[in-house]
Write a structure and sequence with these properties.
There is one protein chain. By secondary structure, the chain is an all-alpha fold. It has one domain (4-254). The chain is built from 9 helices and no strands. Helix 4 packs antiparallel against helix 7 (202-222) and helix 5 (151-167) runs antiparallel to helix 6 (173-196). The longest helix has 31 residues, at 51-81. The protein is globular, with a radius of gyration of 20 Å. The N and C termini lie far apart (51 Å).
Length: 255
């Protein structure tokens, strides 16, 4: 079935990914220039000079991780128990797939563990001891949990894209506008924090946004979400929650 909007979004995500690679590979100093804009006269990342930004970043990361873990665990329980939630099992498989494959497999298990790219705060240009590495060049300046690409940005992008996909047909134009602004705000805040704290270069964060977008688009087709998301309503979610609560009460009362 032809879906012009899907095709346009796929093109946008691909252009973003290829554009980031082309731009920052052709002008590696751009990564340093952007990070330098977040430093003071002494080369210190100014968001690290007070504890609030770091604490907020840690709290946001924890909330998003708990959300992702909760979704994956709930989906696993449904599959094991062969439950068919009113909100649609395909929708839960979609959410779990986007979280596991994008931020989990591609970014954290593959790229961050094998790229070897040192984080901005650790390179010589910002007072560290490691060599700066342009994007797409795998090196030995970091042993594990490296700079390329950004796990937090990948996760926030995955949450924003996946939730928007599921809620889109249930929203009016005002709701869609609020959803787009909220999603963009979540991604923008995460991206700004990661760069401003000296934890990632701009190319790291933008690559993660593109990866999460492409993964969400892939699972959208794979899970047949175009039709399945019609059942992902507030009423269906509440009914599933009540059913789960009743099941747990029976289980604990039996023991």
């Amino acid at each position: 079935m032809k879906d012009p909007l899907y095709t346009r979004l796929l093109i946008v995500a691909l252009v973003l990914l290829l554009g980031v690679f082309a731009l920052f590979a052709a002008a590696p100093s751009l990564d340093l220039a952007i990070s330098r804009a977040f430093t003071d006269a002494e080369g210190r990342f100014w968001l690290t000079l007070t504890p609030a930004p770091g604490a907020f970043n840690a709290a946001l990361k924890k909330v998003l991780e708990l959300l992702a873990y909760g979704v994956v665990l709930a989906t696993l329980v449904m599959v094991i128990l062969r439950r068919r939630p009113q909100s649609g099992l395909r929708n839960w498989l979609f959410l779990s797939g986007v979280f596991l494959v994008g931020p989990g497999l591609i970014v954290n298990l593959i790229l961050k563990e094998h790229s070897g790219r040192a984080r901005p705060a650790n390179v010589i240009e910002f007072g560290g001891e490691k060599l700066f590495t342009p994007v797409l060049q795998f090196t030995d300046q970091c042993a594990s949990n490296c700079s390329f690409s950004s796990g937090e940005t990948a996760l926030s992008s995955a949450v924003a894209f996946a939730v928007l996909v599921l809620l889109w047909p249930h929203l009016g134009w005002r709701g869609r506008l609020v959803g787009l602004l909220t999603g963009a705000g979540l991604i923008g805040v995460t991206l700004g924090l990661r760069i401003g704290l000296g934890r990632h270069f701009a190319s790291d964060a933008l690559t993660s946004v593109a990866i999460s977008a492409l993964v969400a688009l892939g699972f959208y087709r794979l899970c047949g979400v175009a039709q399945a998301r019609q059942s992902f309503t507030r009423a269906a979610l509440m009914a599933d929650l009540r059913a789960l609560g009743a099941r747990l009460r029976r289980r604990f009362s039996a023991t």
